[in-house]
Amino acid sequence: MQFLGGALAAAIWFLLNGEVPGLVSLREANVALNVDAVSPWQGLLLEIFGTLMLVYLTLAATNEARDMRVSSYEVPLSVGICVFVVHLVLVPLTGCGINPVRGLMPSVIADDVRDYHWIYVVGPLIASIIGAFTYELIFSIHYKPGYVAKDNGNLVLSNNIAHS
Prior knowledge:
Elements: H1 2-17, H2 40-61, H3 74-90, H4 100-109, H5 119-139, E1 146-149, E2 155-158
Antiparallel strand pairs: 1-2
């Protein structure tokens, strides 16, 4: 559904304005500025890193087992700040996909899919898998709920017990 929404949004924008916004591409070399090009493998690692930061922040901000619960506006604010910072870093280098739809659909609508566009799909997918498993194994293990016996003999789930 997200792919359809991304394609529809890019197509509507193209029909209204004659151009497709948000095209992503790897930085090309510029001899005058003494800037090296970003290779597809470097771009893949950058996309993995950027998406991984977003995945970690989202999992940490929405983990209900954490002792410190945040108010309702802090989660979207922290995610927005993370997306902003990742874009500041990655836009000059890769165009900052960090989402397969954001990286691919504008290029499909503009008929500008290049041979390295696979990094905008593979990078976020790899990062989301790595992020989900490593967050669960490294960070979330300390927030596993424990069981406490009550007087009537039933085991009741207790919240926010940190295990070491």
